[in-house]
């Protein structure tokens, strides 16, 4: 029997998935045995898992189709503790614990502001998630939002305050700094022309059209380039906008890269243009490698990470003029890298592991015999 089961969709390249991989690696180093239960065994981060992890593949397809397999896993393995992450996964885990009667502690991790996501989504499932969360997240033994803003959103939805414990994602790890030193074979990083960087799925949430508009505006007054790492459904629309703005010579969309840290370290400025977030991991990663940052003041996370603008400019969501001005001003007067890195150190793997050890009650059992 494992010490801890972690349940999520897959290990594609998102912030939630990377956070779970970091937690797994940290817990393995502390001597725990881990089962990673995946709706489907796929994704770029599978290669980052330690060999000691047992990966359970439920078979893929829609989540509701794999509930019997999840129930069988719980009955046969009876993990003492489960950490689930992402909204529909949390609901499924809570229901299956109740239906199987398995005696285990269940902690639900929430990565995004559920109400904001529902407000802007065309998906019926996503629009219903605030109601489903109000009904069922209160069945959890604890609910872990990744930021104060996500925690406030959960309370407004109707999740009991006594269940909520904010724990930041484990972002700053020794591996991050090691990978950040990798060489990047791209001519833009051997040029004197400044390069802006953004990272994220090419989806509505990230509002890359705003970034392209602001970039085009700043580019009118100075040489400048922009690279956006990530893949998604909006690629064609973004490519059309790039062409319409006439900036195709100075914008690159390389797709998903397994090591964004080396790119972030080489960039002159990181820009987050999102409509909403939970705790934008990549913003912390940019600070960790010493790269200045500008972000929209979206719910939630950027204001917490940047301390209301102390460690990087915050601009109104959707405001092209403000974002363009902030980009230009930060390029002209960046904060020292050492200041940014000190701020990012608050989001260390050790700090997250210590907090998760307590909320999962691992300190009372297996993990208590291992040093932090």
UniProtKB/TrEMBL annotation:
GO MF annotations in UniProt: glycosyltransferase activity
Alphabetical list of InterPro entries matching this protein: Glyco_trans_1, Glyco_trans_4-like_N
SUPFAM superfamilies: UDP-Glycosyltransferase/glycogen phosphorylase (SSF53756)
Pfam families in UniProt: Glyco_transf_4, Glycos_transf_1
Enzyme's top EC category: transferase
Domain of life: Bacteria
Keywords per UniProt: Glycosyltransferase, Transferase
Residue ranges the record marks as coiled coil: none
Glycosyl transferase family domain span: 194-339
EC number: 2.4.-.-
Residue ranges occupied by any Glycosyltransferase subfamily 4-like N-terminal domain in the UniProt entry: 14-171
Protein name listed in UniProt: Glycosyltransferase
